[in-house]
Amino acid sequence: MTAPRQDPLRDPRFFADPYPAYDRLREGCPVQRIPTGSGGHHAYLITGHAEAREAFTDPGLSKDTARFFADRPSNRDLHPAISRNMLASDPPAHTRHRRVATRLFTTGRVRELRPFITRVVDELMTGWRPGTDIDLVADLAIPLPVTVVCELLGVPEADRATLAARSHDLFDATDTARVDAASHHIGDYLTDLIDTARANPADGPLHSLLRDCDEGGLDRDETVSLAALLLVAGHETTTHFIGNAVLALLRHPDALDRLRRDPDLISAALDELLRFDSPISVATFRHSTRDLRVGGIDIPAGYPVLISPGAANRDPSTFPAPNHLNLDRDATAHLSFGHGIHRCPGAPLARAEAETALRTLLTRFPNTRLTIPADSLTWRQTRLTRGLTALPLTLA
Q1: What is the DSSP code (8-state) at residue 388?
Q2: Torsions phi, psi of 61, nearest 5?
Q3: Looking at the domain assignment, is residue 2 inside a domain?
Q4: Continuous segment of H or E residues that includes residue 274
Q5: Orientation angle between helical segments 93-104 and 205-215, nearest 10 degrees
């Protein structure tokens, strides 16, 4: 195993297309030590599918970031609602949070939301006409999940755009001060929103969420942190899911033509679209609490461990010809929603939103095309998520 000398996840070429780098790393060793940042720090990066599944369920890997940084100096100033949410916790605290979150996204609740999702898509596409240009990211992929999650949280319509922008800032890997400031905007806003709702009991989605939190034993701070997680995770990854899926189809005309001719295939195609270009490139922070082995590689205690669903989903040992979009492939083993106790509870809602968006777009504008060459598109500068900054399309 030859470890890279520089952080492979900060190369500008990585943001444009991470898959060649992932292939090289996986071929070298699917679990390897890499440099991170410029301070002489290291982490272990997992790029193999079997190894990623193993790591996702290893109890020796903790998501408790407060525990990791307790004796490590840091100049970060994240709001507690962002730094101490369900994604940054282990059982039993995680179990209580997850029990409440899972209630929000049961099959029945998502089914009840589908008419609202359809109405939102219809409203967003009002005014779209063949021959006109749109930005699919700004005009559909961002506002759809933002509107849905803000409806669940009872966020007034006038506040939604600003809240979405601050959520977007949380993923800016180039400006930690901006990230910290955004976390406080979101945490403070949601604290006020929840306190106001508690002071004015009524019926509605937010009050239903508060009842679920009370029944689940979550206190005020934990309720705010869950709301923040729903806001951030509930729209950022779905935005990238929709954008990445549309781009993948436009770059694979045969697959696009199949779905245009038979939109009922879209639901089954979602797993392959998620596998092919995952909205989550590297999963959220984990660290080793003891010496452990993953994929036959020793990982000492006290190291950050980065699990890459984006890399694992292109592992040829699990998915033959992984760089080819194949709608006939059984891709249900993809890891874009994670695996184990931290698997994304909002996956059913994300799938419902993406399916509705794709079905409506392909039905109304079946011959839509890219307005600019695919290699001119720009991608977010973050290793955590993979998503476009814009997707210019000409409707047809």
Answers
A1: B
A2: -105, 120
A3: no
A4: helix 266-276
A5: 150
CA 195 to chain centre: 28
- Output the pLDDT for position 20: 96
Residue 330 has φ and ψ, to the nearest 5°, of -85, 100
| Element spanning 133, H or E | strand 133-135
- State the Cα–Cα distance between residues 191 and 97, nearest whole angstrom: 17
Strands 392-394 and 133-135: antiparallel
- Say if 6 falls within a structural domain: no
Chain centroid to CA 180: how far?
19
User: Cα separations (Å) of 177 from 32, 50, 83, 172, 278?
Assistant: 30, 37, 14, 10, 27
Buried b (16+ CB within 10 A) or exposed e, 166-177: bbbbbbeeeeee
What is the per-residue pLDDT for 288? 97
**Stated length of the chain:** 396
Say if CB 307 and CB 55 are below 8 A apart.
Answer: yes
Is 212 contained in some domain?
Answer: yes
**Model pLDDT for residues 218-254, shown as the tens digit of each residue:** 999 999 999 999 998 888 899 999 999 999 999 999 9
Whether residue 38 is predicted with pLDDT greater than 70 in this model: the reply is no
Phi/psi at 285 (5° precision): -55, 135
Domain range spanning residue 63? 12-394
Residue 379 lies in a domain: yes
Structure tokens at 177: 């001060």
* Number of domains observed in the structure of the chain: 1
Between CA 86 and CA 89, with CA 88 as vertex, the angle to 5 degrees is 70
Residues sharing a CB contact under 8 Å with residue 155, sequence separation 6 or more, in sequence order: 163, 193, 231
C-alpha atoms less than 13 angstroms from C-alpha of 137 in its C-beta half-sphere: 20
CATH number of 84's domain:
1.10.630.10
- What pLDDT, on the 0 to 100 scale, is given for residue 383? 87
Q: Which segments of 154-219 does DSSP mark as H helices, in order?
A: 157-169, 176-199, 205-215
